[in-house]
Amino acid sequence: MKCKILPLSILTLVFSTWVNADPLVIAHRGASGYLPEHTLEAKTLAYAMKPDYIEQDVVMTKDDQLVMLHDHYLDRVTDVAERFPSRARDDGRYYAIDFTLAEIKSLRVTEGFNVDEKGDKVAGYPNRFPMWKSSFTVPTLAEEIELIQGLNQTLGYDIGLYPEIKAPWFHRHEGKDISKAVLKVLKEYGYDSKEDKIYLQSFDPIELKRINDELLPAMKMDLKLVQLIAYTDWNETMTYRGEVAEPYSYDWMFQSDGMAKVAVYADGIGPWKSMLVDDESTKDNIIIKPLMKQAKDASLVVHPFTFRAEPDRIAAYATSFEDMLDVFYNKVKVDGIFTDYPDKAVSFLNK
Ligand code: CA
């Protein structure tokens, strides 16, 4: 095809419709590929890698403090089972909400592990930071914000927060309003408008609507909200009928009008990678699922999770981690990604 010379204004217009100007890197649980997730050390290392945002997963303690943990349990990343053996619930889990901040602060944090049939602790990622080495603890939300804001001051970057309110349905059932508590802390630290460098995320659509419709206006705040998307059978969000918890059905989000409905209360979505690119895709035939277009048609930003560099976490249609980034940043044209390896995504985008 012969190249025609177009006026600059038209070029800009054409260009902007298919190039995602400034896609984001979100450090998932910190630089969690390199150091135990959600420790201040993992956040500091992530910061030095210059992502756009660093993620916080927030759960509540017995004494209503907000701490950084991915699960609302303590058993995958701490020595709670050895320290407080009698404090598990009937399901064998140690719930953060049953422990005070002082108790949680006394725990030792390690790289995440699972307990196998023999009762041995096996690292979730065998080649990541060695289990039980060095010395790590569970930070509070305030401690982490002060770390990031302090580094923004000393290093001069403008790295944002990307907090996730974990299992608000569970906290609500336990009589705690975690969303209100998170918003209060965010406001205290100056995050109160859509112009501030923060996205607030949750898997729970009922709670996200409540935040948008009730809590933010009542607190004179307005933040960018991201609806994380699960499949119903992940049991990521539950609804209670008395004491019986049933999985919340996400099916409506995958209907043709689902994203328009999300856009009423949120600014973006956080889908699982496979919700955007069909797992049946091959290198020469990347199949982009309808959710992507539906989200963009509804003017939502799209920040899929989770990009991990371990060989068994590279999608079959990609030849390498960088190739997987290329598929999502350049073919699917997502607005950002959550990654355990923020350095690799930053260097990919800088090329
Ligand atoms: Ca998260």
UniProtKB/TrEMBL annotation:
- The Enzyme Commission number assigned here is 3.1.4.46
MF (Gene Ontology)? glycerophosphodiester phosphodiesterase activity
Q: Which Gene3D superfamilies match?
A: Phosphatidylinositol (PI) phosphodiesterase
Q: Which UniProt keywords apply?
A: Glycerol metabolism, Hydrolase, Signal
One Gene Ontology BP term is: glycerol metabolic process
Q: What span is annotated as the signal peptide, if there is one?
A: 1-21
- Keyword Signal applies: yes
**Residue limits of the GP-PDE domain?**
23-349
Query: One Pfam family name from the record?
Result: GDPD
| Reaction catalysed by this enzyme | a sn-glycero-3-phosphodiester + H2O = an alcohol + sn-glycerol 3-phosphate + H(+)
A single Gene Ontology CC annotation of this entry is: periplasmic space
Family assignment?
Belongs to the glycerophosphoryl diester phosphodiesterase family.
The record's annotation in PANTHER family points to: GLYCEROPHOSPHODIESTER PHOSPHODIESTERASE GDPD5-RELATED, GLYCEROPHOSPHORYL DIESTER PHOSPHODIESTERASE
Q: What is this protein called?
A: glycerophosphodiester phosphodiesterase
The species is: Aliivibrio sifiae
Question: Which gene codes for it?
Answer: glpQ_2
